[in-house]
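## retry 2 of 3
previous attempt timed out at serialization; input unchanged, resubmitting
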Amino acid sequence: MRRPVIIATLAAAALALAGPPAAAAERPRLPLRPDGYGVAQPTPPDLVDRRFPTRDVLPPPVDGAFTSTVAPVPDDVLARSTWKPGCPVQPEDLRYVTVVFHGFDGAAHTGELIVAAAVAGDVARVFGDLYEARFPIEEMRVVEPAELAAPPTGDDNNTTAFVCRPATGSTKWSAHALGLAVDVNPFQNPYSKGDLVLPELASAYLDRDRDLPGMIRDGCPVVAAFERIGWTWGGRWTSPVDRHHFSQTGT
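## retry succeeded, writing output
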């Protein structure tokens, strides 16, 4: 039971040293829409076929084999997460999950998620399936509070689960705030509703006839893995279309 605590401490130190992902650090902030989201922009040439190497925030696996851990959320992880009093789930009902994943660089990396205790084992099994399928993921780390208030740069690509926030465009809690949703490669699989695109620089990936690594399609290993645990895919919604979003609640 001590390993997740050790990993979490190492992760905090690595994040402090590494700073934000390279793509985010280099992009200027976007002009804002009246609703507070960024104005969608044409995709920059270096992001049209996005395959950035993963920046490790946890120690990668020694032998490249898939492993996962599930444990109560360590205090230091909770402190750097978006959880705060008033969130619709208590810390004891959440779990800290680590899983091994393939990066776009072809190497094995270790990622971290916070999810509801009731689904932690299922979520770990999903990422085991994705590892076996060699589905590439760029980044997987716990979202921090500062990210929720940061001006948009439109290039986020963090695969994540628990975020204590309302649903996009709503005042109601998101399934993420319950630990019952996972977003996978949001840049390759953007959210869209009318002229709103999230991430705002991912417009090129609205063309789902493209066949590039990290994209999620009906019947692909990602959709199949989440369906095996009874979760639904936002890519089948009519409006909005949330191509990176999977949830236990259907929302």
